[in-house]
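> forwarded from #structure-qc
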């Protein structure tokens, strides 16, 4: 137990005491306000009138771009780089199994990064709630918990890739080039639609998608899409994998935002497939945690640490 606590501190404390890591928190605050002030006043007024004080919460995960990139940058070297510089051998000298070492790295990094994310989120929440004149504390805590789950998912993916690929530069190339760009950013900016069109032969208008379960399922089958779906569910904004502020506005004015799919608008009066229920997003996140985690652990357990 003492060795496990030591490993957790070894992974988490350097993050929460690093000036560079706190730049990540500052960037989170900056992106939040950038999104807030770039949001058209009409859309902002609709969000505020519908949710009241909870409108602040809809913008928190809007900073998902910084959360994703920052989490990857703070996690990808956990195994690959420490193997190259010999620090991994020192860590392995602790009286822990390979499984405990692997899990400890994931949990420790998650605790450190979650501390940074929570600090930035609390600052924004308090400042904006004071400006509004009300505090939606329960909505904030639920949303923050889901964002931490999102961070845990990304840390698991990043450390698993770090365990599979030996060189740190290749690790970051895969994480940013393959995972982030293809399976996150561009996935929700048209790649998922193109994949659906390729498989089904049906073209899709980004502002008027067909009532297709596979299309909506593919579109939300990423950690970002699943997390957005859960946050929208908790806030009661819409059954959508879009960022909460965009999903709520799209639900009120159907067909105005590209690539923001709202189940209630599109499937109105029709049968909705079971896998489009918001709770299925938990299964998606679990898959993104378990599959990379198992693969990463297998490589970490069998590979030489030097």
């Amino acid at each position: 137990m003492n060795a496990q606590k030591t490993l957790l501190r070894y992974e988490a404390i350097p993050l929460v005491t690093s000036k560079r890591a706190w730049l990540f928190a500052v960037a989170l605050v900056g992106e939040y306000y950038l999104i807030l002030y770039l949001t058209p006043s009409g859309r902002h007024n609709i969000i505020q009138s519908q949710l009241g004080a909870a409108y602040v919460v809809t913008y928190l995960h809007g900073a998902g771009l910084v959360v994703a990139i920052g989490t990857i940058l703070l996690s990808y070297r956990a195994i690959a780089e420490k193997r190259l510089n010999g620090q991994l051998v020192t860590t392995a000298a602790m009286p822990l199994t390979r499984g405990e070492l692997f899990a400890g790295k994931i949990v420790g990094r998650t605790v450190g990064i979650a501390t940074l994310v929570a600090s930035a989120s609390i600052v924004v929440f308090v400042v904006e709630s004071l400006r509004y004149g009300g505090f939606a504390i329960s909505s904030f805590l639920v949303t923050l918990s889901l964002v931490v789950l999102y961070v845990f998912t990304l840390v698991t993916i990043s450390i698993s890739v770090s365990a599979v690929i030996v060189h740190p530069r290749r690790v970051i190339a895969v994480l940013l080039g393959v995972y982030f760009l293809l399976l996150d950013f561009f996935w929700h900016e048209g790649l998922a639609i193109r994949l659906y069109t390729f498989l089904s032969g049906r073209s899709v208008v980004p502002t008027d998608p067909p009532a297709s379960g596979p299309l909506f399922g593919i579109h939300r089958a990423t950690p970002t899409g699943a997390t957005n779906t859960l946050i929208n569910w908790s806030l009661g904004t819409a059954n959508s994998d879009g960022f909460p502020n965009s999903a709520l506005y799209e639900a009120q004015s159907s067909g105005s935002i590209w690539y923001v799919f709202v189940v209630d608008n599109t499937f109105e009066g029709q049968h909705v497939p079971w896998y489009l229920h918001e709770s299925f997003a938990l299964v998606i996140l679990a898959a993104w945690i378990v599959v990379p985690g198992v693969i990463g652990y297998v490589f970490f357990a069998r590979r030489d640490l030097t």
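QC bot note: The mean pLDDT is 86. The CA atoms of residues 69 and 176 lie 8 Å apart.
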